């Protein structure tokens, strides 16, 4: 009896529009990732795309409010016991949480600052020949620095940095490393960081 040859299934690519919620003008990135990317790796890609520093806990959340994350020992107390149990983000992929174009899901980073990212699947397409993934193909504005206090803290930070007479101007200027341009976005540098995610 002849054995049938298995044909390799080529992974599709999810084109994701990722935007920070409640900030205007919008801070966003467009990312192209393999559809079979585990959510744990998508976390690493998002950290690279926004310049976050892996300093805090995070979860993904689908439209049914099911959350996906990775609990360390002792972290369970930080999650509500009322909702469904946290699913292991290493066992679910981008295609699981956002199966088709126009699917929407969330990524919440730092449960103190609560940086909520709205992720919309723009399209699902075949991979381009010779192209490596993941990649960042577009974006706008610098992401807020880690630990600046969420959206209200970020607004206060920008106000203090804009005003040399502000009582915290010098201290916060030093805290951000001497300068911070909220409008700056370097696509080439961001794409390099995203591509480096293993």
Q: Could you give a quick summary of the protein structure above?
A:
The chain is of the alpha+beta class and 198 residues long. It has helices at residues 39-50, 94-97, 150-162, 169-175, 187-195, and strands spanning 13-20, 28-34, 58-61, 67-69, 87-88, 104-109, 115-125, 135-140.
Task: Explain how this protein is built.
- By secondary structure, this protein is an alpha+beta fold.
- It is 23% helix and 24% strand.
- The chain contains 5 helices and 8 strands.
- Strands 5-4-3-6-7-1-2-8 form an 8-stranded mixed beta sheet.
- α1 runs antiparallel to α5.
- The termini are far apart.
- Mean pLDDT is 88; it is low at 4-9.
Keywords:
198 residues; alpha+beta; eight-stranded mixed sheet; 5 helices; 24% strand; globular
Gyration radius, rounded: 19 Å
H/E element order: EEHEEEHEEEHHH
Largest beta-sheet characterization: 8 strands, mixed
Roughly how much helix do the residues carry, as a percent range?
10-25%
Q: End-to-end span in angstroms?
A: 42 Å
Note the overall shape.
globular
Q: Order of strands in the sheet with the most strands?
A: 5-4-3-6-7-1-2-8
**Which residues sit in consecutive blocks of at least 5 with pLDDT less than 50?**
4-9
Whole-number average pLDDT? 88
- Per DSSP, the total helix count is 5
Approximate strand percentage: 15-25%
Total DSSP E strands: 8
Task: Map the helices and strands.
Blueprint: E1 13-20, E2 28-34, H1 39-50, E3 58-61, E4 67-69, E5 87-88, H2 94-97, E6 104-109, E7 115-125, E8 135-140, H3 150-162, H4 169-175, H5 187-195
Parallel strand pairs: 4-5
Antiparallel strand pairs: 1-2, 1-7, 2-8, 3-4, 3-6, 6-7
